Amino acid sequence: MRIIAGQFRSRKLVAPNGLETRPTSDRLRETLFNVLQPRIAGAIFADLYAGSGAVGFEALSRGAKYAHFAENSKPALIALRENARSLGLTEGVEYGVDLRGAEPALRAMAAAGTTLDLVFLDPPYEAVREFSATQRLLGELPVLAAGAIVIAEHARRQPPDAAPAGLVRYRLLQQGDVALSFYAKPAESA
């Protein structure tokens, strides 16, 4: 696994041992960032269910200002921190680990007044209930900036139930057995 483009191009990343996490493939990350490229520079990015952090580190490599990483697997958090260290990232990153899932990280961001421009969700495909709860929280908590985009990676045969409150799905990209659903928070009207 490697960073595809930007400042850290071709730098290798470590993945956690075991089957607890499923890294987003290089090809799918390339597709994702081809879509996001016009919005990445200066963005506040969240990589929820981050695993090795490959998606968040790709965002930082391509010019995101800051990346929040949330992960509930201790081996994945170890890999994530090792990747940050090997890339020399000491600023612009924040890690969160909570065995209950992404909810504590989102609640902490809301309490701190953090607003996110781009959010990537990649929970285990079997964690449908947690996935739905996280999407619901993204719609309810004041963590999304006006015009924010939420991207959910999911099994192609198992699309998310519905768009979270306040978000509209505007794009679906399918690649093999995997799909990316893109949701937008409409910009506030002046």
What would you note in describing this structure?
There is one protein chain. The protein has a seven-stranded mixed sheet with strand order 3-2-1-4-5-7-6, sandwiched between helices. The chain is 32% helix and 26% strand. The termini are far apart. A hairpin with a 2-residue loop joins β6 and β7 (178-184). The mean pLDDT is 85. It has helices at 26-40, 54-61, 74-87, 103-112, 128-140; strands at 44-48, 66-71, 93-97, 116-121, 144-155, 168-175, 178-184. It contains five helices and seven strands; from the N terminus they run αβαβαβαβαβββ. With 190 residues, the chain is an alpha/beta fold.
Sum this structure up briefly:
The chain is an alpha/beta fold.
Order of strands across the main sheet: 3-2-1-4-5-7-6
Largest sheet: 7 strands, mixed
What percentage of amino acids are in beta strands?
25-35%
Would you identify the regions where 5 or more consecutive residues have pLDDT less than 50?
A: none
- How many beta-strand elements? 7
Number of helices: 5
Q: What's the rounded overall pLDDT mean?
A: 85
Query: Pairing-aware structural class of the strands and helices?
Result: alpha/beta
End-to-end separation in angstroms reads 44 Å
User: Helix-strand pattern, N to C?
Assistant: HEHEHEHEHEEE
Percent range of helical residues: 25-40%
What coarse outline follows from CA principal-axis ratios? globular
